[in-house]
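On clarity, I found the account of how folds are encoded harder to follow than it need be. Since the whole study asks how a given chain folds, the encoding of that fold should be made plain. For the editor and my fellow referees, an illustration may be useful. An entry of this sort, consisting of the sequence and the corresponding backbone structure tokens, reads as follows:

:::
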Amino acid sequence: MDFLFFFNSLIPSWTSVSLLLGFFSYLGIAGSILPGKLVPGANLADGTRLHYRCNGLLSLLLLVGLLVIGAWVDVVSLTAISDRGLELLSTTFIFSVIVTLLLYVAGCKSNDRSASLKPHITGNIIDDWWFGIQLNPNFLGVDLKFFFVRAGMMGWLLINLSVLAKSIQDSNLSQSMILYQIFCVIYIMDYFFYEEYMTSTWDIIAERLGFMLVFGDLVWIPFTFSIQGWWLMSNKVELTTAAVVANCCVFVIGYLVFRGANKQKHDFKKNPKALIWGQSPKVIGGKLLVSGYWGIARHCNYLGDLLLALSFSLPCGISSPVPYFYPIYLLILLIWRERRDEARCAEKYKEVWAEYRKTVPWRILPYVY
């Protein structure tokens, strides 16, 4: 019976389809018409560069405001997402498959020779569908890669807020749920406040748009990063004052390392002479930064990310491994990505990279790894 209920819960409905399409329609319209800083992307292989309208924070605040007003006048249910979690999961997954198949077909038929739209076809259908064919496909003038990243992060917050509303409705709001929600809200709002930093990440600059990125943005991020909230809806956790303080310390340290490292990297790319911790930056080979956080570990931003992920799970206590899926998965992913980064940089920078490794010997965690 439980399996049958689970299976039936996964079947998409017109309501879940309407919710998803309404969300995407809002993002497309708001992202195109709301004011925002126009940020130039990285230089592409043909010398061109895309520009991104970074109005994600305004789009998010407006959307939340509209939902609150809609709930107040009783035309919107704040628990609509939490009531249809599995249904929305399967609907979003099917949408990801359909969209990436269309991207594959459009890429194969494209004759565009620009760096952002030139097809990269290997001949392996699965490989081309999974990794994508075009670097920056667009639809009605909307850059789809940037759009899907924004949708995933906003979706994560909307799921969390709906779970919070459900907890309040069921009189099941706990200290752990409040702590988890606060951490996630700060992290996601910070992401959109510094949204322009996303334009200089590897995914935006170099990865083609295929199922891997679309599924990661639309399904993996919102539905797996919110596991802690779903778990806390049906599990009561009592935290000691010491546990709460320790959890807050992990979050603050993680945030300072994560945001500080990424800000230093972004500022250095924009202005190689920008001061870091009040001093002129030290550089190896003219390109590799060894000041600030980047002089402590070669991938110290990953350390901040891992601490933040851990802080999202700690409010759930230690009675179950389920809420720790996200930090465990992230640890595996980032170690794998760090190895890829190391191999790519070694090939790109050659002897300069070898010198950099001697200067900064630690990969992620100083004196440990």
Summary: The chain has two domains: 8-238, 239-368. Strands lie at 37-40, 51-54, 138-139, 142-143, 283-284, 288-289.
